[in-house]
Please model this.
Amino acid sequence: MVKVTLAQEAAIGAEEPVEEFAARAAAFLEANLPPRTARATFVWGEGEDTGVKLWEEPDSDEERTRMADSRAWRRKRFDAGFGWIDGPVDQGGAGLTKEHLRTYRRLEAQYQTPSDTYFKLDKILSPVIRKYGQEAIADSIPRALYRGELMACELFSEPDAGSDLFSARAKAVPTDGGWLLNGQKVWTSDAHLADIGVVFCRTSSVPGKEAFSAFLLDMKQPGVTVVPLRQMTGGAAFNEVYLDDAFVPDANLLGKVGQGWEVTREILALERAGIGAGLNRSGSGLANGTRLTALVKAMHAQDEPLIRQELIKTISAFWAAKQLTTRGSDKVGASAYKSDPTPLISKLALSNNLRRASDLVGKVLGPKATADNGEWGTYSWNSLLLGEPGVHIFAGTDEIVRNSIAEKVLGLPRD
Ligand SMILES: Cc1cc2nc3c(=O)[nH]c(=O)nc-3n(C[C@H](O)[C@H](O)[C@H](O)COP(=O)(O)OP(=O)(O)OC[C@H]3O[C@@H](n4cnc5c(N)ncnc54)[C@H](O)[C@@H]3O)c2cc1C
Model:
């Protein structure tokens, strides 16, 4: 099969006028989803006191239910032609443009959809798998990710290799028809649920980036043991993953042997862009200031000059980041970022803004943030205060992101 470039794809499928597409999408959404009302009418003291959750950490029964709902919705949406709007027709996509996609997203945002969190890697891994995967997986895996048939995770970090992935020790050695993987990965988000994972492994002992390769791993096979890690938020969404002679067929090598760093770097770049876009635009009432303003008023802190000043600075910073990430997210799915600063700055903006918001909440709540006195909208902010530190770490720590901006964007000498 002749591979179509991403630029060529943009030109395909532009035939359906956006207005006609929008009418079709609106009818589909109307017929299948309840309209979203709760977010638009956030009122302090009303509804469930869930706080601002940065991570989804339900118990396992709820997790199973949510995943099943999410899978069912994905299947329905995909089969109606709205699941992979800008994807190529020969791989199951609708072959339409980014403008159609944006239109659909705007419309879908007006409805209550099942949580998308478990399948969020579809947009991140699919372009990379299509670019680096061999024909069989490049043609089948993205469709399965978008349709919710497969859920994925990323196995990069190890106990002694996080920022410095070149210290990774997990090894892949050739065997009959493929590779045998051995080693330990850690902090693997959602590995306990995932069907497949992209794994970064050493395939040679030569120094430097050519020593590593990336593979698509079947997470449900013997030889893959997933052990949950509980973090300070109380949830256990991360895992250690032990690989003991886990088999990967040759067909699941991504790129060439020795190209693992390039593959991983592209995934991380797309991930950063997606993170900034997703969370900065979240409807939790944090990014748009609704909830923070309501908190300040409810705690009678609205007349304190320093709190007012911080509140305005925080809301302005979220607003600026939203503009940036809306622009940046338009490019997610295009060829990975080599020198575009948008994803790096989006990630950093998100970290900074959440820290700012978290500090403000801590100041306004004082001891109410640390002990549950039953008062609505106080202790529940814990999910933000305890979850926020993780944002400074995942998909590249703040320091690593700043280094990348210095070196790759500004062209400063290597650290
Ligand atoms: C919420 C969350 C989800 C995650 N999900 C995944 C996942 O799904 N898959 C996965 O593989 N990993 C995942 N991780 C792991 C994450 O990628 C690593 O924690 C991260 O890369 C940092 O690595 P480390 O923890 O080993 O810290 P280290 O790399 O040891 O860093 C420790 C400190 O040193 C600083 N530092 C390190 N190197 C430099 C440098 N060169 N210059 C300046 N400062 C430096 C860091 O900024 C940091 O402050 C997740 C982590 C979190 C918090």
Notes: The two ends are 44 Å apart (CA to CA).
